[in-house]
Amino acid sequence: MAMEDPDKKTEVVLLACGSFNPITNMHLRLFELAKDYFHETGKYKVIKGIISPVGDAYKKKGLISANHRVTMAKLATKNSDWVEVDDWESSQSEWLETLKVLRYHHQKLLSPDPANSLQNAIPLTKPGRKRKQEPNRHDPVKKKNRCPDIKSVPQVKLLCGSDMLESFGIPNLWKLEDIAEIVKNHGLVCISRAGNNVQKFIYESDILWRHKNNIHLVEEWITNDISSTKIRRALRRGQSIRYLVPDVVQAYIEKNNLYSPESEERNAGVVLAPLQKHASDSKN
Question: Angle 112-80-89 (CA atoms, 0-180°, nearest 5)?
């Protein structure tokens, strides 16, 4: 009977990072699938979903301005009572590793202080470091006295599709220590199509295998092949995208004439920020 009590469940916040160029119905479905999965285990309660569009400094080909991408994501989620858009990552002048965004949102849950900044996005593995925020880090633990079965601070888990998980294998795209900290301290929720090779990918990675209990694989039985790339292609060709993106997003794209052959050439020939950064790090 204990599992019936919602107060005894581990609270989870789902964080999705990415370009959202533009946001599609598929992105929104990821949240619904993950929420259903966690609630069906009986052990978790999803309290919030966060969409965090990447900043312009990511330099991905065809990436339109963060201002438009954030606005579209906000329009797409305005009727949701649990998924929201956060523009902290997209408003940074430099590209940020996904791990830093996870740390930031974890820290924000510990001390919901507007003065929160990147400096406070410290690793969970090093609680001994003396920082200004340190006293706040331990305050929520007091709640445990009242209710010993609940974990007082919600877990922030990275929500992704199988393509993001498999991108861990691309040289210089991710730092190995970042992957390790993401799966060890936060956890992954990966939505994958039935029959996808994600399990094989985890088996072939020592880091992922070591923390496989913190990787939640959610099978998507009602398959959905919508992608932002295909949406942009349809728009360039003057084809309809109705029912593939929320109506308000379609209206915004049309009103602002957002995707064109010219916009698709933005950042063409520019090296992606993480590849540039990690390649130069390895030389130093």
Answer: 45
pLDDT given for residue 144 in this prediction? 40
Which residue, among 126, 84, 80, 127, has the nearest Cα to 105 in the 3D structure? 84
pLDDT tens for 83-123 read 999 999 999 999 999 999 999 999 999 887 655 555 555 56
Strands 215-220, 10-18: pairing is unpaired
Q: Please tell me the pTM assigned to this model.
A: 0.85
What's the CA gap between 204 and 217, in Å, rounded? Answer: 16
The single-letter DSSP state of residue 245 is: B
Instruction: List 48's β-bridge partners, or say none.
Output: 13
Q: Which tens digits make up the pLDDT trace of 195-228?
A: 678 999 999 999 999 999 999 999 999 988 899 9
Contact predicate 3/43, CB 8 Å: yes
The 10 Å CB-count burial string (b at 16+, else e) for 209-219 is eebbebbbbbe
pLDDT in tens, 35-59: 999 999 999 999 999 999 999 999 9
DSSP string, 263-278: HHTTTTTPPPHHHHHH
Kind of pairing between the strands at 44-53 and 188-193: unpaired
User: Which bin fits 176, alpha (ψ -120 to 50), beta or left (φ > 0)?
Assistant: alpha
- Whether 220 contacts 247, CB under 8 Å: no
